[in-house]
Amino acid sequence: MEIGISTFVETTPDPHTGKVVSHAERIRQVVEEIILADKVGLDVFGVGEHHRKDYAASAPAMILAAAATQTSHIRLTSAVTVLSSDDPVRVFQDFSTLDGLSNGRAEIMAGRGSFIESFPLFGYDLNDYNELFDEKLDLLLKLQASEKVTWSGNHRPAINNLGVYPRPVQDPLPIWIGSGGNSESVVRAGILGLPLVLAIIGGNPAQFAPLVDLYYRAVEHAGHDPKKLTVASHSHGFVGETTESAADAFFPSTQYAMNVLGKERGWGSYTRETFDAARSENGALYVGDPHTVADKIIALRKNVGITRFMLHVPVGSMPNDQVLRAIELLGTEVAPIVRKEIAEWESGN
Fold it and tell me: Do residues 10 and 250 lie in contact, with contact meaning Cβ atoms separated by under 8 Å?
């Protein structure tokens, strides 16, 4: 059971003071977070790509590269790379470079992205949303498989037997598919034999079990070995000394961020009642003391089949010392509980 962190490197106003951390400072903070996550034994750190004022990470590979030579074990991934509006050749080169810097710890998490700001920024038509992703994923997988590539499509100039460099340390460089729970994307990942990441950020996590089953059925139908493939989840959460202090610390920034998005997307108001319901036993928020968070991760493994869990923290902007403490608790207290319990469960003891 792998356990790690994901972040969108948010720069929203502090809900208590109104202060906004600069993009530069927040980027430096995230590098510090990655270094700490490696030190406390976490398995993976993911940085998401966005192209708007309240997020500082438009170039996740750059941030991950800054931490690569200051870490030893932690895997470094995008979360996600908005592949539809990027050039797969450049994506592959960036993450191959990261793989070299980290000596084989880079991963690409490819997705359509739930934010659309990158499409007009890079000159793409949203009417081509699905076709862009399918075509660019096809090219990315060819780059993964072969040093020299011949490829043609509708949204990028053709490539005729050209080499793409540098080559990664890992062969192949891991490429994951990020999904918000769409059955079509789950089946695609299974048919392609790619590991899957589910964004479980609402509802009851147990409801994702049928999607995991669907994924593995697609894997087997396509002739891939399910034992070689991983299903991960990314869920909002926070670890504190006590469950009450964790909830009180995490709620204000979460409420601010969710209400900003809610106004953009037509969601209802995000209240403390909404928050408390989501952090209950059957909710999708992983907020509490180490034992509370560990118990929910263990239940996710047993009931849904997740074999990598990524805690998304913070949501909105929180004081960096609080974020660092949550990462420390996740690595030193939560992860050992989860790994021990899962190992015993799987061995039948």
Answer: no
Bridge partners (DSSP) of residue 197 are 178, 232
| pLDDT at 348 exceeding the cut of 90 | no
* CB proximity list for 179: less than 8 A, separation 6 or greater: 111, 185, 186, 189, 196, 197, 198, 199
| CA R_g for the chain | 19
CB atoms within 10 A of CB 126: 11
Strand 159-163, strand 81-82: pairing: unpaired
Distance CA 231, CA 274 (A): 27
Sign of CA dihedral 139, 105, 209, 280: negative
Please report the pLDDT score of residue 349 as a whole number: 67
Spatial distance between the Cα atoms of 268 and 312, rounded to a whole number of angstroms: 22
* Residue 202 identity: G
Give the separation between CA 82 and CA 84, rounded to whole angstroms.
Answer: 6
Residue 48 zone, left/alpha/beta (φ > 0; ψ -120 to 50; rest): beta
